[in-house]
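Can you please make up a whole protein chain along with its backbone structure tokens because I've never seen that pairing?
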Amino acid sequence: MSLPGPALPMRHAAEYRVRFDEATPQGLLRGSALLGYVQDAAWRHSEAMGFPRPWYREKGVAWLVRAVEARILGPIADGETVTVTTRLTGYRKVMARRETGIVGPDGEPRAVVLIDWAMTDGRAPVRIPSEFEHAPIDGPGPFAPIRVDLPPGPPGATRLRFSPRLRELDPMNHANNGVYLDWLEEAVAAAGAEGAAAIAVLPRTYRMEYLRPAEPGAALVSEAWRDDAGWAYRLADADDRDLLRGTLIAE
């Protein structure tokens, strides 16, 4: 396989039509489906730059989502076609950041998503291969990784217990990164009318830091509570180890 040359696409744009099964009972795009579009656009950009899936398999490496910041600006309805445009905005030793914009059929922005990706060999983070020196940066460059620091959940936090469903697992055999956003919204909505309102207000911003994967059959505890900034969320396993920490700030 030939290595990428210098003239590589700085951005990749793709259109996605919201399917019926991707929409909520309110007829709006689910958070997991939105992040699915973002993830797919990132893969398609990687392929366009000369890094298809077989290249990663040959190298024995893969990208994993380390953190997400998703700002939802407007509604995305069932049946609408949105344009998703992604670009690399910076690198660290073992990480890369992408910014992805989602625009509605009227040309108005509907969401902006930042994702910090970490390169791994399946066991631990590894340096990004030297071939990526050719990948174009369209942004500020170095970045501070997204972090979510939370205190322990208070006694009155809303708690849900469940295990990942088969349909929520991806080819890496753990819960896909987008599913965690659905779980966050389920926990916040379960807190009552105030929580249900928070996941519908526009604009709103989600931040999620992924710490460990949710494996098939894992016993999970999902908890959400109101704090001074908005809503806090924690997902833990049966040993009380954090799998994900997140926040929802309704603007």
About this structure: Confidence is low (pLDDT under 50) at residues 1-5. Strands lie at 11-17, 62-72, 81-91, 95-103, 109-120, 158-162, 204-210, 220-226, 231-236, 242-250. The longest strand covers residues 109-120.
